[in-house]
Amino acid sequence: MNYFSTNNPSHLVSLREAVIKGLAPDQGLYMPDQIPSLPVDFFSSLKGMDFLTIGKTVIGALFNEDLSEKEINDLVEHTLAFDVPLVEVEPNVYSLELFHGPTLAFKDVGARFCSKLMSLLVQGEKIKVLVATSGDTGSAVANGFYGVEGVEVVVLYPKGKVSKLQEMQFTTLGGNVTALEIDGVFDDCQTMVKRAFLDTELNQKMLLTSANSINIARWIPQCLYYFRAYAQLENPELPLVFSVPSGNFGNLAAGILAYRMGLPVSKFIAATNINKVVPDYLSGGGFEAKPSLQTISNSMDVGNPSNFYRLLALYDGDEEKVKNHIKGCFYSDEETRMAMRAVKSSTGYVMDPHGAVAYLGLKDYLSEHDFAANGIFLETAHPGKFRDVVEETLEIELELPERLAAFMEGKKKSLALPNDYQAFKTFLQS
Ligand SMILES: *Cc1c(COP(=O)(O)O)cnc(C)c1O
């Protein structure tokens, strides 16, 4: 399989190049040049199928030209070390809980897959992954890459500007993960990383790469959630609606990839907070990037969603198809809090603010269309990750899950560096 750039369909590269480069040289996103259709007997036996079997079949169909069966099995087993339970919150309204991984957010699956795939593709060479983080990406990437052979991770974070819990998630690991505490802000960390990628002298000496969400190795494995959700439905013959809380739109685009491989999805809901560039596009406007606004669902505070062009590419650039199959909607913080309270008081279920945005989108769609359907909203983070907002909104005390609490007992190991590129470069060469 080859991968093309969304900016130039005739620019084709190998899997190895797409994964190691991350972004195409023309700034486009890589996309698989053929999307395999899964066989009919896969779908007829999907009900009840476990996550590993699903993973091996779907990843096998996408990567069997580039990887051996053993490599595919290793990759899937490393990635899917936890399940994504489907919980019925109200009749025919389900929460797909994507937060049972090591850092309790759905980005764990992509990060684990990405690390393992990189280690398979570099084959003995050493590769350094550089990540600048304002918190969550650092923890998912550090934990996903922890202990993976041949890959070294360097996390740059702004001193004093990430939460204690986030900091502990990437500074206590040690091993192949090094945390650099930079005396600056997030943008300074980002600037240093970008400069390193452009530094010819450095790139002659070492293989440097990034692990951000535009990398196909982080994007593609997210399609697995949707198959696993379907496998857990009591009545899979009903029309299926997925509501996806979206920021950069990688997760939603991965759902559409599952649909293109044959999963029968009648509607996708693109649910956002007031950062509503894509809902505006879907309701008839053009695509217009905006500065991002701060909300309580802050992992979705994105004003220029990078996976938008993947959405278009998945419908072969046909905007009418895009607008027919995806419905956009957006909600204020107040509406989000009201939904969290209403669901808690009527069912006892605690949603995090991101999941609550998706819940609202699903409920509004189902109430506008009076038909029996399986409605699934994606719950992308454990409520404990957004403890302050959840506790204040619901007036409850949340117990921190054991996995999060365990990080707080580790020992912080980080290297303090000034906000200075030369110091960073010297560190990389040491
Ligand atoms: C990253 C993230 C999102 C948004 O996912 P995209 O793929 O960027 O649309 C939603 N919820 C949580 C908790 C996240 O961390």
Topology, pairings included?
Layout: E1 3-5, E2 8-13, H1 15-21, E3 30-32, H2 40-44, H3 51-63, H4 69-79, E4 86-90, E5 93-97, H5 107-122, E6 127-132, H6 136-145, E7 151-158, H7 164-171, E8 177-182, H8 186-198, H9 200-205, E9 207-209, H10 216-219, H11 224-231, E10 240-245, H12 250-260, E11 267-272, H13 277-282, H14 308-314, H15 319-325, E12 326-330, H16 333-347, H17 353-368, E13 374-379, H18 387-394, H19 402-408, E14 415-417, H20 421-429
Parallel strand pairs: 5-13, 6-7, 6-9, 7-8, 8-14, 10-11, 10-13, 11-12
Antiparallel strand pairs: 1-2, 1-3, 4-5
Helix pairs in contact: 3-4, 4-5, 5-6, 6-7, 12-14, 16-17
The structure holds pyridoxal-5'-phosphate (PLP).
What does this entry look like structurally?
With 430 residues, this protein is α/β, with parallel strands linked by helices. The protein has a domain at 54-106 and 219-394: Rossmann fold (3-Layer(aba) Sandwich). The protein contains 20 helices and 14 strands. The strands form three sheets. A six-stranded mixed β-sheet has the order 4-5-13-10-11-12, sandwiched between helices. A five-stranded parallel β-sheet has the order 9-6-7-8-14. Helix 3 packs across helix 4 (69-79), helix 4 runs antiparallel to helix 5 and helix 5 (107-122) packs across helix 6 (136-145). The longest helix has 16 residues, at 107-122. It starts with a strand and ends with a helix. Bound molecules: pyridoxal-5'-phosphate.
